[in-house]
Amino acid sequence: MRILHTSDWHLGRTLHGVDLLEHQAAHLDHLVELTRAEGVDAVVVAGDVYDRAIPPVDAVSLLSDAVTRLAEHAHVVVTPGNHDSAIRLGFGDRVMRPGVHLRARLADVGTPVTLMPRAGGGGGAPVLAYALPYLDPDTARHALADDAASVGADQGADARAPGARTPLARSHEAVMGAAMRRVGADLARRRTQDPAARAVVVGHAFVVGGLASESERDIRVGGVDAVPAATFGGWGIDYVALGHLHGPQRVTVPDVSRETAGHGSGSATVARYSGSPLAFSFSELHQRKSTTLVDLDRLGAGGDPDAAVELVPAPVPRRLAEVTGTLDDLLGEAGEPHVDDWLRVVVTDAVRPAELYGRVRARFPHALQVTHRPPRPAEREVVTAVGPGRDPLDVARDFVEHVSGHAPSDAEVAVLRAAFELALAEERSA
After folding, report:
1. What's the rounded Cα separation, in Å, for the pair 19 and 278?
2. How many CA atoms lie within 13 A of 63 on its CB side?
3. Which residue has the higher pLDDT, 259 or 179?
4. Among 317, 278, 274, 245, which Cα is nearest to 11's?
C-alpha cells in the first residue's frame, strides 16, 4: 500500500498581496500526475485545505476539480484543519463518490476509513485510516468527554448534575489524548480479527518537537497549544500523517507501552509533517517543499523507516529570496540573479535613497518587501521614557535618529514642526 501524504494547501491564500491560486492549481496538477505515475493507493490531506473558513469561489472550484481527478487513481481522505470550516468542508460527505472520504465530524473519531490496495488491482492487507478533524479544545473537550479517562482540570464551573459527563481539560493534549484512546481501542479490537491490518492516523496539530514557521496560525488555547509526541505512541499505529506546520519534517514518537496496543505491527510509529506545498512567508525561505510518499509495506519490514519514505520535491513557481546591500549594488551586478524571484529587499545605504520603492520595483518586479536598514555602530540599547512633559518635537527627532541612524536635517525638522503645529491647530478648532 502506497500513501501520498500532503497537507496545508491553504487554497485562496496570498503572499504579501500576490494571488497564489494559479500556482496552487499547478501544484494540484503535480499531485494528480504523481498519484498516477507512482501507483499511489491513497492520498491523505491532513487539514488546512482552505486558507479561511469561508473560501473564495475559485478555491472551492479548484478543490472540487482536484479531488475528482485524484479519485480517478486513488482513495482520497481529507480532514479539516484549524483554517477550515469543518461543516463547510464536510458538507455532503455521505453522498460523495466512492473512494472520496471527507472526515469532518467529531462523532467519527475512532472509526476508520478502510482502504484496500487499488493500484494494479492487487490484494494485500487493508489499511485502517483514522482521519481526525482538527480538534478545537473548546468543542472537542465536551464531544470526547465520554472517554473513561476524561478528567476535568478546570471542572469547578463545568460541574453537571449526576450522570453528566465531565469535560476534558481545555488543552490540545487532552482532546488529542482522548481521540487516540478511541483510536487505540478500536484498532485493538479490529486486529483481533485481522492481525495484518495496517493503521494510519491523519491529524492536524502542533506536536512537541516540530519546527514552526511564521505563517502558521496560532492555535493556542488557554496557553496550551502543543501535543506531546508520545500521544501517538504505543497504539500500534504504523504512520501518523500530520498537518499544521509548513516545513516537511519527522517527529520522533517515543516507544510507549499501552495495554490496548497488544496487536501492533511490532515496529515503531513513524510521524511526519508533509509541510505546505508553497512558501507562505519569508520564514520558509530555506524550506524544501515536498510531498511525502510512504510505502507502508516497507515501513513495517523492521528496517530503516526513512527508507520507506520518499520526499518528492514540489514544483517551485517562483523562488523566494532575500537580498541585502546598498541600492547601487543591488541595482547592479549583485541583484542580477534575483530579478525573477519573490524578494525581500534590505537596502543598507546610510541615508534613505530617494524614490527607494519605485527604483527597487523597477529592477525587481516581484519584490514583496522593501526595507531601509542603515548600518549602525554596535551600541547598548537605551530605553527612554516618553512622558507628557517632553516636547513632541524632541520625541520625533529621537525617533528619526533611531530609525535612520542620523539626526534629522533642518529641513526635516521644519516639516515635523509644521505637522505638529497643524495637528494642534486642528485639535483647537475641534
Report:
1. 12
2. 26
3. 179
4. 278
Number of residues that this document lists for the chain: 430
Query: Backbone phi, then psi, for 96, in 5-degree steps?
Result: -65, 155
SS3 state of residue 273: strand
CB atoms within 10 A of CB 338: 19
45 touches 78 (CB < 8 A): yes
As a whole number of Å, the CA-based R_g of the chain is 27
Grid coordinates belonging to 291: 510531498
- Name, in order, each residue with C-beta under 8 angstroms of 388's C-beta and a sequence gap of 6 or more: none
Q: pLDDT digits over 46-66, tens only? A: 999 999 888 899 999 999 999
Global pTM exceeds 0.90: no
Biggest CA–CA distance in the chain, Å, is 86
Residues 366-375: tens digit of each pLDDT = 999 999 998 8
* Averaged confidence pLDDT in the chain: 85
Of 60-64, 80-84, 297-301, highest mean pLDDT:
60-64
Q: Which helix (H) or strand (E) holds 178?
A: helix 172-193
Residues 172 and 210 sit within 8 Å (Cβ to Cβ):
no
Backbone angles phi, psi at 296, to 5 degrees: -65, -30
C-alpha–C-alpha distance, residues 368 and 361, integer Å: 9
Q: Which grid cell sits at 75?
A: 482513495
Please give the domain boundaries of the chain with CATH numbers for all domains. Answer: 2-313 (3.60.21.10), 318-375 (3.30.160), 384-430 (no CATH)
Residue 223 has pLDDT above 50, yes or no: no
Whether the Cβ atoms of residue 74 and residue 42 lie closer than 8 Å to each other: yes
End-to-end CA distance of the chain: 74
